[in-house]
Amino acid sequence: MLSFRKLTWQDKDIYTQHYQASPVKYAEYSFFGLWAWDHAYPVEFAESSGRLLWMRSAGPLSGIFGPCGNWDAVTDWGAELSDFKPGDVIYDVPARVREILAGHEGLRFTDDRDQHEYVYAVKDLISLKGKAYSHKRNRVRAFLDGYEWDYYPVTPGDFAEIMDFQERWRAHRMQTMTDDEAESLADEDTAIQNALDRWEDFGLMGGMLKVDGRIVAYTIAEELDGENLDVRFEKAIPEYAGSYQAINYMFLREQGSGYTWANREEDMGEPGLREAKMSYNPAFMLEKFQMEIL
Known about the structure:
- By secondary structure, the chain is of the alpha+beta class.
- It has two domains: 5-116, Gcn5-related N-acetyltransferase (GNAT) (Aminopeptidase), CATH 3.40.630.30; 117-265, 3-Layer(aba) Sandwich (Aminopeptidase).
- The protein is 35% helix and 26% strand.
- The strands form two sheets. It has a seven-stranded mixed beta sheet with strand order 1-2-3-4-5-14-6. The chain has a seven-stranded mixed beta sheet with strand order 8-9-10-11-12-7-13, sandwiched between helices.
- The two termini are 19 Å apart.
């Protein structure tokens, strides 16, 4: 039987070993992706006989999800799945695992489009060449030509200013928000503070755009591996024309050019977020599926 226990900071090294063994690096499954949001979505994990990690959320989005680890090295998936019973549903199953189990009886897979992760070619988001990126180029130009701006990499000395900006940004958003949306943003504030508190432990990086000495946009990102960078948080004051497009462009140009791919995570089924993410022309999607045991 799988023996679940609470994911804690002390599990970082052993968890990361499994994550780095994963053939595909999903942003959702990095240790930071689970730990930073644990206050809102508490996570437990268990190691299987096949040396994979399965997670269980005890929060509002409850259920088992996974696995994390070297899926290609599992020799007995029958044993791997023996801890699950008919009627169990495993969420956010990577596409590669679905391929491996395609001929396995007693399973039903459902595409979970809302949880697919968007992945972009960094070189495309830096060059913004071609008709497909004409609107983005114009927005970037509107900011770069329209304001006296400065770009700075984020350092620990900037953390207090970032949280001050975050408070201003959230106060602006609160004017048109539902209570649920406001609660979600408060949870995000805590995740951002968690990132800043463990900045060096995670090797995070980030960039800021300032106008008149004040932050108007910032990005915080995590290296998933040598080729993949995940954009964890990106905020901008929309009154500054093109600020969102400019921070995306400037951060990748100044600090992300050594990576091949930029992961901008899922859209969670939000129409506006989906439209925004699609407008940047993803190179591909990291697909996830629900797997039901029959």
